[in-house]
Amino acid sequence: MNNKELTGIEWRSDQWIDQYRGLRPENVLEYFSQSPFWDSSSNNAVLKMQTQFNDLNQESYDLKSMVGVEFAVTYQEPPLLFIITKFRRASPTKATPIAVYYIYDGNAYEAPSLHAIVSSRMLTSIKNVQNAFATARAHAEFHPATGYSWKETAQQKAARKDALKDIQLS
Question: CA 14, CA 50: separation in Å to the nearest integer?
Answer without folding.
Answer: 28
